[in-house]
Amino acid sequence: MHPLSSGPNPTTRKGPLSLSIMVTEIDEPLTPAGRLFLRPELNTIITCAIGLKNPIEVDAVESQIRNSMLIEHPRFCSLMIKDRHGREHWRRTQVNLDQHIIVRHESDGDTAADDEEAVNDYLADLSLSSPLSADKPLWEIHLLMSQKCAIFRVHHALGDGISLMSMFLSCCRKADDPTQPATVNSGDSSSTSSRRNGREWKVWRLVKMLWYTLIFVFEFGLRSLWLKDKKTAVIGGAGVELWPRKLATAKFHLDDMKAVKKAVPHAVNLILML
Question: Residue limits of the O-acyltransferase WSD1-like N-terminal domain (predicted)?
């Protein structure tokens, strides 16, 4: 017997084998649309003001946000970073709500005649004086205590209007049953769905889609090559993007919006945008 073979092996472990595995999250690159909205020429920020009936309770707002889907969404808890090649990526981080919830009480410098004008002045000032910092996820919630108004500021790189409104709706609950999520009635489309089930309709729809796509691409190319904006009295020169802003409120009746939506199916988003 070899002398080294006698006695127990000092490297032998008794009992179950335990392994330590370190899991590292991989940075996710931005989509082409997200990189476009982050360009200095655009840097598009979506701003949404919501008026409230009752006074704002800051503690209740913070508690609701901590327990909502917003704080768990990857885009809303990630930093926008750049690698050594200058490409943008999303990196997960811990969200500090104190950096995202800004509470504004009545200021001595307010000169607005009413709450609506005060909110418009505040939004106009935000568009120039307070860009979203890259040191935190690109969203903020401003609480105007005197005006009972909440202002959401979200960078367009985080999502488009439909996805952001869907996420906002998922954080809401029904007034008659707080345990149930809020829903939006899509309307009765049975009159149009029956005629779209046939094979001929699907083929014809595909042909029209391809034909109009070719026309739109051709028209867009011609406009890009030969057309440009005309000089008018409202067009400024270099540096006009730094001028002070002035906002005005346009009001619409929901009954009118519903009538238009019924008359023009699937066009309510375009109408709201215009």
Answer: 84-269
